[in-house]
Amino acid sequence: MTEIFDDLKAEYEQLDAVLAELTADQWAHPSAAAGWTVSDVVLHLTQSEELVAASIAGDELIRPPGDVDAVADALVAAQRDIAPAALLARWRAAAFATPGALRARPKGARLSWVATSLSPATLATTRLAEHWAHAHDITDPLGIAYPDTARLRHIAWLGHRTLPYAFEVEGIEGGPVHCELTAPDGDLWRLGDPAAASAITGAAADFCRVGARRLSPADSALKATGPYAAQALTVLRNYAL
């Protein structure tokens, strides 16, 4: 996972190249995130990235009471009058400081993240996953290309790694699931014990979109076999909480 910090920076750079070219009308355009404009999505990414900086600084992050989406909506609503140029500068300042700051944390460090603590590499992975998902919330409605890359392997790893937690949270019986996912460049990524009785096969891009709740399992081309694979796709999430 040591390359995650470089890949996180690369993901930020890919999104930055898109944001730098947006017109005023595009900033105000509805995103694929319900109720949010493109500007709102970038503000949310900025606010959450500033929480990363607070965690790195040693602050303990306390999850506010209430539904996570409602809390995020309230935070965005409180600051959504910021102009696009100022918002972009604020996001850049927060985002591009993150990879180096996480890389610099000592071996074995744990960082506060809402209701748990994460290693710097895992926190970097959650940031990559969130920026990738929201990048598509921005670009898809605008018809802007945002190609999938080999960086999806980090997101797929996170989704698979957190399956036991996802089963527990949803109150669904689960078990080991092996994944064989085809990368954007055609490579095959294997996750989990190949001897597991349950398996998910198909495109890594579909797997990551299902985990980001941007694609329903039924609308994907993923194949689920065994006692737990289909349930795994219903609970799959590309985030640690």
UniProtKB/TrEMBL annotation:
Keywords: Isomerase. This is Maleylpyruvate isomerase family mycothiol-dependent enzyme. One of its GO terms (molecular function) is isomerase activity. InterPro entries: DinB/YfiT-like (IPR034660), Maleyloyr_isom (IPR017517), MDMPI_metal-binding (IPR024344). It comes from the Bacteria. Residues 9-138 form the Mycothiol-dependent maleylpyruvate isomerase metal-binding domain. It holds the Pfam family MDMPI_N.
